[in-house]
Fold these 2 entries.
Entry 1:
Amino acid sequence: MRKRFWTKKVRILLIAAAVLAVAVTLGAALGQGQGLGFGQNLFSSLVTPLRSRIRAIDRQAVKIYDYIYRYETLAAENEALRQELARQNAAFDEAERYRRENQRLRELLELEQEHTDFSYAPASVIAFDTSVWESRLTVNKGTAHGLEEGMCAVTGTGQVVGVITEIGTNWAVISTIFDVGVQISSRVGPYTGVFQAFRSEDGSSRLQLRYLAADAALKTGQRVLTAGSEKYPGGLLLGTLESSGLDETGVSRYADLSTELSLDGLEQVFVITEHDTESAK
């Protein structure tokens, strides 16, 4: 833009200079032949409009130059601000990564302090697979890290996430407690039953503890825990009792549960690889 402008100005100035030179020559010639006063008068008459035009062009050129200068200055400042923002965003992302890592380590430490007889394998969630009937997630640990099919995964607060249903050398699929195919032996107070998810008519997941004794005395707010097995320990939190009633057969009782588990934003789980079977029940 600037290059085209200055080329045009140079041309205009050259033309104006040529016209001015012709006028000076003509004025001098006329001054010698007819008197200096007449030559000066003619010269001034020819030059004055040119001077006004040149001054107007010069003022316009200054305005355009100032505009170009301000534009380029603002563009440079904008680019500098963009680079500074990028640096700050990178620093923020790095700080957030460290914050999340510290949070995970604190959660793992709390888990290990609460259950000193458990061994955990932290695993990062790398994929989700959710449908009407299935609710599964894939983690980046597998048999090479001591994981086995049937092992239980929990959050940093000890909430059960699900059990491993498929596994490879460096990956494992965990079917969550929202998967209708998952059944976990559970207990609430002195009563035992089977924990399982069901799909409601609206497509939402409904958690229940089924096959309880018909005369089971249950209270809202009771904690529902795992009963324990060779693959996962007892006493792990599954949910909280909301309501109960007799099932369709009338010979056993069921309980509807609520859970604080949310898969949204879940980034890491802790797979229990070892536990004391007797003390965990």
Note: The mean pLDDT is 80.
Entry 2:
Amino acid sequence: MMDVWSTLPGRPASRRSPWRVGVTVAWLTVVPVLAVLLPASEAAAQIVNVQALFDEATAPMGLSGSADLSLDWRTGSTNLIATRLLASAQWRTPEHMVLAVARGEYNFARDELLVSRFLEHLRYRYKLLDWLSVETFAQHELDAFRRLRVRALVGVGPRFTLWSTEQASFVLGAALMGEYEQLRRDGEVDAGAERLDPRLSSYMLARVKLAENMNLVETVYAQPRLTKVADLRLLNETLLVVTPNARFTCSFGFVVTYDAEPPATVSPLDTQLRTALGVKF
């Protein structure tokens, strides 16, 4: 088991001095804010959770990947049954981790096939100490159901691994994030609205091994806008993952998302009940 307390001041030193670690984290965290502190008009999107795909305690070394096909039952902004395909690739060494994710959703509503959402996400993590990493990420997405024509973001910040064993893990993270959004041009009052905002993206990831082939994963996100803290986005995802063998997975999840300032006609609260079948390679 990794002992975070042994690396604190007054304890045995790790691979790098605390001073160098502090300077590195501070420098990498402050840079994005300098590029995004600009005034903005109204637009909104949802949080996307990739942390459950990126747990060091369960990720293999080297190159690996997975593909998941899921079924969602949604209420809120969208009332329908949706299918989702998610593909991810990961490369890991003792100090470096890279994750690439692509997701597409295809939905049937009133006997019509709709392409509702696309997303691409790239994340890099560098391990400074056993308990401390720095991660940076970039993301691009489209979301017709939330009237989002484009969303692009970049971010960087520290990740704290407070507990990490085969039986359980507990992780906290925070990042300064620059976010650009544009709504689609339709007949609504905020059609075509654009914004460029700084946000704090903080998260908690907890995993417990319930049985030899069963894990419970809980993820919580909070993303306030730094120029207006009341503009807050929240996500809570509870995921039960069953792995009958080393190649296949089955997961059951419930997701709640909240957006304090959604676009016109979009519900602030969404829920998703999801079942997914996956294959690892």
Note: Residues 1-19, 21-44 have pLDDT under 50 and may be disordered.
